[in-house]
Design a protein that fits this description.
717 residues; mainly beta; Immunoglobulin-like; 5 domains; 6-stranded mixed β-sheet; 2 helices; elongated
Length: 717
Amino acid sequence: MRHHPAVPTPSLRTAFIAVLLVVITSLFTIISPPPAYAQLSDPTIDKTFTPSTISVGGVSTLTFTLTNPNAATPLTQVNFADGRLGPLIGDIVIAATPNLGGTCGLVAGDFVPPIAPGGTAVNLPAGAGLTIAPSSSCTITVDVTAPAAGVFLNTTGPVGSFETGAGSDTGADTLTAVVLDPTIDKAFAPAAINLGGTSTLTFTLTNPNAVTDLTGLNFTDALPAGVEIAATPNLGGTCGAVATNFTPNIAAGGTAINLTSGVSLTAGSSCTITVDVTATTLGAKVNTTGAIGSTETGAGSDTATDTLTVALLDPTIDKAFAPATISIGGTSTLTFTLTNPNGGTGLTGLNFTDALPAGVEIAATPNLGGTCGAVATNFTPNVAPGGTAINLTSGVTLAAGSSCTITVDVTATTPGAKVNTTGAIGSTETGAGSDNATDTLTVSDPTLTIVTVGAVGTDNVDSTTGTPTPGPIDCPNGGVCVASFLFNDSVTLNVTVDPSSSFQGWSGDCAAFGAALSGAITMDGDKTCTATFTAPSGGKKGGKEEEEEPPPTVTPDVIKTVDREVAAVGDTLTYRIRFANPKDKKLREVVLTDTFDSRLDGVTVVSTSKGSASLSGNTVTIDGGLELAPGETLTLVVRATISARAQPGDVIDNTATLSSPDLSTHASNTVYTAIVGELPSTGDRPVRPVPGLLAPSLVVGGLLALLGLGVRRRPAA
């Protein structure tokens, strides 16, 4: 059998050639220095690790600085050997991405062996041909890493050149590789809350190590005085911690958040822990954790601090006019809504100022009300008819997290858009405050509404004087007509009577005209006038037979009024019911009942002079053993809004009924409101008659009953 000589493997051959090349180059330099350069200074070398401490598996940049100290002679074939980057155990190695660079302009193949990931040597041979100009330096940079913890002192061989030979200067530096401590950050969100409010406290835990996982993460956090875990802790975050990972367990009212188990972090990762906290005292609450540690690093060193500011929030105020558009002399209810946004503290001494805009003043009947319980003397000046300011100065308190309202009726004396802004609302606890409120009341010229009842043929009402905005009144039979006129205009109304009917007279705001066919009315506010016609006996109206309805029962003991006999969808109606005991002895067990039409929404009791009113659906009732002395009066005020279920042409009627065992019959009374499609408010819409609509007022209703005429109604939707 023939034995072949062993053939070196490629890797051994490469290593052998590289070492041989370095040795030959060095010998050549030592043996053959040119005599002319014998007095030259050797090149120098420095080396540094940046950073000098890394985590295990982290990256540091190793920089070699090569210098030619000779002032006039360049040095060529500069060379050095850095044969191993560390000791045999825990070597420093070239990083996965070497990032070879520097100003010397070398490439990986210039080194023996070539620079490559995992390499353990940075050897620059003379054959690389590096030349350094006189009095110059250049650098070589390469990224390195340490796969295990340790302290690694790394020293190069001497740096030489063709001109100086082997040289004598070496470079040394130390790289330390450690398992880094975990880090912790914390933050309150929001960073400022009111007393009793809630903030989410977030801890962010980070493992800064490149290759080392950390287990058993732990820290302590004693919450500052006046801060505790909220009633609903909402423990969460991405760390996956549960209440039992903390000592004591996370629970409502707790004052410490001490993580003791259950959390691990892979290399280079982070996670969060979130807990809701609340405050029981005011002030700046500075909160600092203990140091965060782990099983691998021990106690650790990093802590985290954040501050939770606890203060009372200012009260807030809103305001609104309803309706937002009225005519001169009309009435709008101004509502202030006061709110205490603090979850754990009541506010006392609520106060604000509100100077009404020019042309707006408190109405003749202020109807001061609302849920705040304020009375006229809680304002400075007192709330009174004609007043131009609504300045709350005392008497209103708000429990934690609550709201209340103040309502005042106002009127307008001039047209235009009345922008109204309050001053800032304050309280005893918060001081002057910061929030204010604005709303706009639009005031138009007064409107004149003409309702013709029982008209036939050529029966008509028109106007011949005044300054209409736009169009004069022209109201043919069976219609409702509306027009606006300038404030304080004198408007002359004229009646034209068809030969087949007769004019019975005026009611409403024109009642003073009696049965006159002409009369003048002053437009110092919205006016509604009803002109009543009747057909001759025989039951014919306009040539058609009409059924007669029996007259309604009208009991004068109950007096009921509504502020609008003609209105549109969205308008607010105010009903006032008044009953005076007509007997000379007291009435026992008095019950007042009023069921409002299903086409009305938001039925609200504004006030009652005696007893208490209950509301069930759209039915308002005053009962509970109420007694009325002889001559004593019971008054009820109710507001409601016309819903979209009401259609133009509808008539909403409403009856109040009062009973007592001391009355032989129930007392009742009915009022009517006619629904029109649109009420002109700014003078830019034409008059819009609504043919066929009958809308009698209380007076007209009684008159129609006496005359035996029916009232056409659209049934409720």
